[in-house]
Automatic annotation (TrEMBL):
Protein name: Radical SAM domain-containing protein
Organism per entry: marine sediment metagenome
Lineage, opening ranks: unclassified sequences, metagenomes, ecological metagenomes
Residues in Radical SAM domain copies: 8-35
A Pfam family the protein falls into: Radical_SAM_N2
Length: 36
């Protein structure tokens, strides 16, 4: 999930622009990064 409420607001503001496409991505925890 998103722990900071500014992120969904920023996501919505960016995607409301006709020439902008924002996507949400999540990085794995460092210990899982090595496994992936």
């Amino acid at each position: 999930g998103m722990s900071n409420m500014a992120l969904p607001i920023l996501y919505e503001l960016l995607n409301s622009q006709p020439d902008v496409l924002a996507e949400r991505v999540y990085a794995p925890w460092p210990d899982m990064e090595a496994i992936i």
